[in-house]
Amino acid sequence: SFARARENDDEEPTTVEFGVNTGLQAMAPISITSGALATIGGAPLSLAGPTHQTVQSTQVCVNDKVIPIYRVAEPGRWEIDFYRSKRDAEDPLAEYDPECAEDVEEVETALVGLPRERRDQYGNTQTFEYLVFPTTNESTVARLSRILLTAGGALGTGELEGEIRYSWILVPGSPNLGRLRSVVALRWTSGESPVAVPVAKVEYLYFDDVDDEEKNDLGVSGDLVQVTKSERVDPSPAPGSASSEPVWHRRITQYR
After folding, report:
1. Across 139-148, 231-240, 243-252, which has the greatest mean pLDDT?
2. Nearest of 42, 45, 56, 62 to residue 104 by alpha carbon
3. φ, ψ dihedrals at 110, nearest 5°
4. pTM here?
5. Torsion angle of the four alpha carbons 16, 22, 23, 29, in this order, in degrees rounded to the nearest 10
6. What is the dihedral angle through the alpha carbons of 233, 234, 239, 240, rounded to the nearest 10 degrees?
7. Which residues of 83-106 are buried (b: 16+ CB within 10 A; e: fewer)?
8. Distance between alpha carbon 230 and the CA centroid of its chain, in Å?
9. What number is the average pLDDT over the span 92-121?
10. Residue from 111, 146, 113 nearest 128 by CA
11. CA nearest 18: which of 36, 37, 40, 2?
12. What is the tens place of the pLDDT at every residue in 2-27?
């Protein structure tokens, strides 16, 4: 997606551009082309074009910390918070919270521009968590770790109902270092002792994972050679089986 924000009462509107979705990197960082939001306070900016969407520079309180964010909103439908850098002259927390710190936290450089939370008009929430790793050039890189799913509205409990977990290849020296290993969707059970139950998963196999000398026809080092998609279809144990293992319907796609 691409969007441009502008300040309505400015003869030469300043702009901010949002990058396109880049798959495993979640979302490209926001690039400010002309200092657009660097001097904007709490007032939302209207996005240009035939839309009612707005973008606002503000903060949120997360685990007793004040986090600086950009908030993009479609009035009456949804809003998304994106991490942003702390400014030298940072505005105070819009809504005072006595349990939250007074100072604004400095956000990890690798997180700037990535989504932190999405909320829809019904109160359903998706919260994005990341792992931050060092790289060989002394910078850092963020990888999506979990998406927490909370239901809102009249039927929602406000408690965690599901999550999506991402597993990355982190073996030093591996040709697949930093690549995605698996994605697992889990649903949390209700009750006094909730349990996370896997209901779907996707697993990735790369050329270097194949333990076979006769594998040159699969590609070259670093190539993705197989994707396995699994969906849970029966409660455990399966009918006619004494095993307590879950039953999965699997679809395998191989690449050459």
Report:
1. 139-148
2. 62
3. -65, -20
4. 0.75
5. -50
6. 60
7. bbbeeeeeeebeeeeeebeeebee
8. 22
9. 78
10. 146
11. 2
12. 344 433 344 444 444 443 333 333 33
